[in-house]
Amino acid sequence: MFSSEDAVSHPGVSAVESLLDERPRRRATVNVEHVLTVLSRAGESMGTPGGGHVEHVAAYALLLAQGLDMSFQARTLLRRAALLHDIGKLGIDESILLKKGPLGPAEWEQVMLHPSIGERICRPLRVEKSILDTIRHHHERYDGTGYPDGLKGQEIPLFARIVALADAYDAMTSSRPYRKALSPADALRVVTKEAGKQFDPVLASTFCELMDRR
Ligand SMILES: [Fe+2]
Fold first, then answer.
1. H or E element, residue 201
2. Is the whole model's pTM more than 0.90, yes or no?
3. How far, in Å, from the CA of 115 to the mean position of ligand 1?
4. Which domain holds residue 176?
5. Label partner for 64 (CA 20 to 30 A): which of 19, 57, 58, 179?
6. What string of pLDDT tens digits covers the 214 residues of the chain?
């Protein structure tokens, strides 16, 4: 059985952990914001052909935050959480993340570990709890059928519900080697159809309104 302990022994994670181990020694010169940016780009390089995904997710998340009238401080945290949400992919075998065909059950089991691995990578940086929660819960579904904890509805932290929607929308509107991108209109139709199932219904309708206005 593949465990999260096995997953974090991946060379990419070891490199990150050795960087973190050096943190106290280099505290004066290492800027945590910079480390977070490097981590988010490193995570993105794993399994997101084409690049730009985490920046897109952050932009859609901030659009929602603006629509919800979030404070500047909340938006700053949300942006950071969106940039880091997939950092746990550093702990997943690249051959699985870049596989062109459908994944088998054992491969899915590995991919589904990335939220908890990401939380573990970022915990030593003492980032805010809302960011750790977003990393851990961005694959929960509003109807409770997501992972890793099967949280339901408002049990899922707000930032995680926002990033889940932004992440799914960007994935749907981006081409992959094995499928074509949906048009924005078609992707918004999926968002509406999945309101209350995959997505928070209030966030889903707010997102569709904001995107329609663009
Ligand atoms: Fe993810």
1. helix 201-213
2. no
3. 6
4. 4-213
5. 179
6. 334 444 444 544 554 555 455 455 454 445 666 677 777 766 665 555 556 888 899 999 999 999 999 999 999 999 999 999 999 998 999 889 888 888 999 999 999 999 999 999 898 888 899 999 999 999 999 999 999 999 999 999 999 999 999 999 999 999 877 778 999 999 999 999 999 999 999 999 999 999 998 8
Task: Using DSSP, state whether 179 is helix, strand or coil.
Answer: strand
Between the CA of 206 and the centroid of ligand 1 the distance, in Å, is 22
Instruction: Give the Cα separation of 191 and 187 in Å (integer).
Output: 6
Question: How much distance in Å is there from the Cα of 131 to the middle of ligand 1?
Answer: 14
Total domains, the chain:
1
Q: Which residues are catalytic?
A: 89
> Position of tokens 């084409």?
50
Could you give the CA distance from residue 172 to residue 191 in angstroms, rounded to a whole number? 10
Q: From CA 140, how far away is CA 145, in angstroms rounded?
A: 7
Which protein residues have their CB within 5 A of the ion that is ligand 1?
86
Q: What is the CATH number of the domain that holds 79?
A: 1.10.3210.10
CA of 25 to the centre of ligand 1 (A): 32
